[in-house]
């Protein structure tokens, strides 16, 4: 569970609602919501395939539920693997493969145990990282598109409201509702874009960078093990991926 995302949304919406004071219900308008939400979804459906848009719920879930791996724990894990390999040989890792929850790490070690050429292992794993990054960035791109289109739909709603208002100027009772539609659609579009979609797209990009970093470390560790490098050298290589304050120091 990502507390930063939850806290950020609660704080943002909480402060906006608090700023409305006791007049919050005046900002509820079904027609305005229909224009912004319906128009945005429709425009996104034109932009992306149906299956991609239907997967938005799963994409949004990653901003709340995704948990980054601990790079320092990964370094300790690879150090243990390297020490074991130097003492008992590469086949000693085979018994531990089934206990590794990370599919990517398990696959890399399995290929190493199977005796594949290190260069081929590296190519396979780097291709998988590239495909993973592409999938993540596509999800962020969809959310970014939602964020770009929501304010535009708000502006369309504003134009609709102003046209209705101008056409009914002879009836003063209709001016208020028409003006409400004109202003609230812009409000809804701006809120959805800047408090939901664009921040979530940014969070997905950050998650993608974190996961790519960890997987790049895994590839480096796999390559060191396949070459039979000293555990100390392996640690130094993996530590170079991290900021100085986060690096694992051998005791």
TrEMBL record:
<dbReference type="Pfam" id="PF01618">
    <property type="entry name" value="MotA_ExbB"/>
</dbReference>
<keyword id="KW-1003">Cell membrane</keyword>
<dbReference type="InterPro" id="IPR047055">
    <property type="entry name" value="MotA-like"/>
</dbReference>
<dbReference type="InterPro" id="IPR002898">
    <property type="entry name" value="MotA_ExbB_proton_chnl"/>
</dbReference>
<keyword id="KW-0283">Flagellar rotation</keyword>
<feature type="domain" description="MotA/TolQ/ExbB proton channel">
    <location>
        <begin position="98"/>
        <end position="215"/>
    </location>
</feature>
<feature type="transmembrane region" description="Helical">
    <location>
        <begin position="178"/>
        <end position="198"/>
    </location>
</feature>
<feature type="transmembrane region" description="Helical">
    <location>
        <begin position="145"/>
        <end position="166"/>
    </location>
</feature>
<keyword id="KW-0472">Membrane</keyword>
<dbReference type="GO" id="GO:0006935">
    <property type="term" value="P:chemotaxis"/>
</dbReference>
<keyword id="KW-0812">Transmembrane</keyword>
<keyword id="KW-1133">Transmembrane helix</keyword>
<dbReference type="GO" id="GO:0005886">
    <property type="term" value="C:plasma membrane"/>
</dbReference>
<dbReference type="InterPro" id="IPR000540">
    <property type="entry name" value="Flag_MotA_CS"/>
</dbReference>
<keyword id="KW-0813">Transport</keyword>
<comment type="similarity">
    <text>Belongs to the MotA family.</text>
</comment>
<dbReference type="GO" id="GO:0071978">
    <property type="term" value="P:bacterial-type flagellum-dependent swarming motility"/>
</dbReference>
<feature type="transmembrane region" description="Helical">
    <location>
        <begin position="34"/>
        <end position="57"/>
    </location>
</feature>
<protein>
    <submittedName>
        <fullName>MotA/TolQ/ExbB proton channel</fullName>
    </submittedName>
</protein>
